[in-house]
Write a structure and sequence with these properties.
Elements lengths: L25 H16 L1 H20 L4 H13 L1 H4 L1 H11 L6 H4 L7 H29 L7 H10 L3 H22 L2 H8 L3 H14 L1 H20 L5 H19 L3 H10 L1
Length: about 270
């Protein structure tokens, strides 16, 4: 399990977060720590996983005959993942502080920093809506053969039957996904843990990616694989993979950001 100390007792940040350099090998530690939290979180962790899976099933039902829109909203569902996982971050925080990992308190985790969490959620929602619209445009311009079925979409993507569509779709979707990942990878854990404002949290997240581009890209790839497993199992796998991602993200935050105690010790040593 990742070993780092919790911040001060009031949970507030006293200065701009200091970002640590990390190695790619740290990711294995995040996943191990995340799995440890999944086991300790038990039904509370699985509840959040079930919420992700239910969201996927509902979207599939609602947009069963509009796969162009469903594709965008499915990806957008992942873009909103950092906000939806806020309860998982709080579970990991409570486990770290040797508190009982109960579900009820985590359902209102957003209340500790409501204005900034709300602002950040609004930003993610805007990105979701723009991407959903962009995906429709990509289908309209590049997908040949009229309104596709789900099988058409899967076959086209996997076989590159329409290479121009697949390339453009992945390029546009990848841009949105990388943007959201870069501004949010540690932003919400930071806002939850230290009550940082949304702008500072987003900048700190960008700095974490900029200072550790290789490891962070690898971490993004791991998230894509874990989410892909969930989608490949008709969303059932999300019940396990999303809690794992959420808990591991908390430990990524702990590894990447120095606590106030660490900063005080560094200042004293200098």
């Amino acid at each position: 399990m990742t070993q780092n100390h919790a911040p001060g007792s009031d949970g507030t940040v006293t200065r701009f977060p200091v970002i640590r350099p990390i190695q790619a090998a740290a990711i294995a530690g995040w996943l191990r720590a995340g799995w440890h939290d999944c086991r300790l979180g038990g039904l509370a962790s699985l509840f959040y996983g079930a919420c992700f899976a239910t969201g996927g099933w509902l979207m599939q039902v609602v947009f069963a005959q509009a796969y162009a829109l469903f594709a965008g909203l499915t990806t957008g569902f992942l873009l909103l993942g950092p906000f939806l996982a806020l309860g998982l971050y709080d579970l990991s925080r409570r486990i770290e502080l040797n508190q009982a990992p109960r579900l009820a308190p985590t359902l209102a985790a957003w209340r500790v920093n409501l204005p900034n969490v709300g602002l950040f959620a609004a930003l993610l929602a805007v990105v979701l809506l723009v991407w959903a619209r962009a995906s429709i445009v990509v289908f309209a311009l590049f997908f040949a053969g009229g309104l596709p079925t789900f099988g058409d979409v899967v076959r086209t993507v996997l076989t590159f039957e329409q290479a121009d569509f697949a390339v453009v779709y992945f390029a546009v979707g990848g841009f949105f996904a990388l943007f959201v990942f870069a501004i949010s990878v540690i932003a919400l854990p930071l806002m939850l843990d230290r009550r940082t404002d949304a702008i500072t949290a987003a900048i700190a997240s960008l700095l974490a990616c900029g200072r550790n581009p290789g490891p962070m890209l690898l971490w993004a790839g791991c998230i894509v694989i874990l989410v892909g497993i969930g989608f490949a199992t008709f969303f059932l796998g999300l019940i396990v993979t999303m809690p794992l991602v959420g808990h591991a993200t908390w430990h990524a935050y702990r590894n990447l950001v120095e606590t106030d105690d660490d900063q005080h010790q560094s200042l004293a040593a200098s």
